[in-house]
Amino acid sequence: MSGIPLNYFVFLSAILFTIGVVGVLTRRNAIIVFMCIELMLNSVNLSLVAFSAFHGNTRGQILVFFVMAVAAAEAAVGLAIIIALFRNKQTVNIDEINIMKW
């Protein structure tokens, strides 16, 4: 690993994850919530790569590829759902979307 200590990477990852959680819990716009979920996934990827490099194996880096594949699929499906909701309800505000209610 480079000259940067491991705790810097862990601290940055924790900050990014916290920003993502706060964004998911406080925002009502579906696109912003979606971006915050992606931010949380990327912070986990940062932790996996940092710990993998620290321990000198590639297991964490291989796992990052699987997480990135899941994130790409989630992005495609999530954006399709958001577009479908916008076409149906003319809004991306989570509070105004009641499509699952009877």
Notable traits:
102 residues, mainly alpha, Helix Hairpins
Strand content: under 5%
The low-pLDDT segments are none
Q: Which percent range fits the helix content?
A: over 70%
| Classification by helices and strands | mainly alpha
The number of helical runs is 3
Tell me the radius of gyration. 17 Å
CATH-derived topology: Helix Hairpins
Estimate the global geometry from the Cα principal axes.
Answer: elongated
CATH domain class: Mainly Alpha
- N→C terminal distance: 55 Å
Q: What series of H and E elements makes up the topology? A: HHH
Query: Count the strands?
Result: 0
Mean pLDDT: 90
Count of discrete structural domains = 1
Sheet of most strands: none
Task: Map the helices and strands.
Elements: H1 6-26, H2 30-55, H3 59-89
Helix pairs in contact: 1-2, 2-3
Structure description:
It is a single chain. The chain has 102 residues and is mainly alpha-helical. It has a single domain (6-96), classed as Helix Hairpins (Orthogonal Bundle). The protein has helices at 6-26, 30-55, 59-89. It is elongated and about 50 Å long. It starts with 5 loop residues before the first helix and ends in a 13-residue tail after the last helix. The mean pLDDT is 90.
